[in-house]
Amino acid sequence: MKNKNNQMVTKFKEVLKFYYYLKPFGYNRLQHNSSLNLSVFASPRGGSTWLAESLKSLTDATLVWEPLFGYKQYKINVFNPFAYPERSRSGMGWHQYIPEDTQWKEAEEFFDALFSKEIINLKLYRFNELVKIPNSSTFIFKFCFGNNVLPWLVDRYDIKPTLLVRHPCSVIASQLNYGAWEWHKTNFKYNYNMKRHAEFYEPYREVLDSISCVEERLAAEWAMTVLTPVKNKKNDEKWVTIAYEDLLLHPEKCLTKIKTRYQLNWDNKELDKIIQKQSFTKSSFQETSSESKLNSWQNHLTPKQIDTIINFTQRLGVDFYSTNLEPDYTKIYKS
C-alpha cells in the first residue's frame, strides 16, 4: 500500500509539473520551430537509449521518448497529460514502412505536429527535467520503431538522424532476458500488422511464414527493421550510421562522426565521462567493460541459438553480420 501511495504522489507531482511547465511550452511552441532537431533510430534493445542519453548530455537537449511506440489509448484524452491519441490516428503499424515517393496525409500530419512540438504529453517528454524544456534549443527524438520510415522521413524533415545498428545475437540475447519479450517465447507467428504498404512483406513472406521458434521470430523482427535503412542508397549519407560495436570500442570516434556531420558543439573532454554513464532503462547483463559487453551474447546464447539467429537473418538477406563479434563495416559505412 505504501508503494502504491508513493507512486500516486509521484504521478500527481508529475501532472502538476506538466501543467506548470509543459502546457505553457505547448502554447508558445512557435518559438521552438527554429530549434535544432536531432534523432536516433535503432531496433528495440539496440542501444538507442545509451546513445540518445549521451547526445542529450553533450548537447543539453530535451529527449522526446519513443514517438512511434503503440502506447495505451485512453477513453478520455481531454485534460489527460498522458494521452497520446495522435499516434493511433496516424494509422501506422508497428515498424511501419512507407515508400520514399509516397504521400500519406495522416502520417505527414503526425510527423509535422511531432517535429514542430505541437504534440505535448508526458509519454513523450517525461524523461526530462520539465522545468528546462521551455528554454531548450535542442530536441532529440529517440525511435525504436522508426527504422523503416527513416528513408521517407529524411526527404521531408531536417531531423539530423543517426542510425544505430547492433549485432542480432546481442539484441536477441538482450530481448530474451527482458520481460517485454516474454510473450514471444510461446507466440512465434510473425505479426503482419501493416494495413498500408503491406507489399513490404512480400519478398520475405515465404521465409517469415517458416518461423518455428522464438529465436527465428526475434531474428525476423530484427532483420525486418534493419534491412530497409542499411540497404538503402542513402545509408550513411542522408543520415549517420554507427554500429553499436564500433560505439562500444571507439566511442570518441563515433560521437565525433555525429558531431562533425551535423556541426554540433560540445566539449570533447566530457566524452569519456558521458559514454560510460548507465542508461536509465533496465540493463540486460552485468558486464561493465566494453570488451565484455561486446561478446556477452556468446555467454547468454547456446551455439545452436547463435546458428539459428545468423542463418535466419541471412535467409532474409542480411550480409553484414555473422558469427563474428563485429559487422562487416564496409557494408554499413560509406565513410
Describe the structure.
It is a single chain. The chain has a single domain, classed as 3-Layer(aba) Sandwich (Rossmann fold), CATH 3.40.50. It contains 15 helices and 5 strands. 41% of the residues lie in helices and 8% in strands. The model has no long low-confidence stretch (mean pLDDT 88). It is globular, with a radius of gyration of 20 Å. The termini are far apart. It has a 5-stranded parallel sheet with strand order 2-3-1-4-5, sandwiched between helices. By secondary structure, it is of the alpha/beta class.
Break the fold down into its secondary structure elements and pairings.
Blueprint (H helix, E strand, L loop, with lengths): L1 H26 L8 E7 L5 H12 L2 E4 L19 H5 L15 H11 L6 H4 L12 E6 L6 H4 L7 E5 L2 H9 L28 H4 L5 H17 L9 E4 H6 L1 H11 L9 H5 L14 H5 L1 H5 L2 H13 L20
Parallel strand pairs: 1-3, 1-4, 2-3, 4-5
Q: Report the C-alpha radius of gyration, rounded.
A: 20 Å
Number of domains: 1
- CATH class, named Alpha Beta
Known CATH architecture = 3-Layer(aba) Sandwich
Shape: globular
The gist of it:
The protein is an alpha/beta fold. The protein is 41% helix and 8% strand.
Question: Keyphrases for this structure?
Answer:
335 residues, alpha/beta
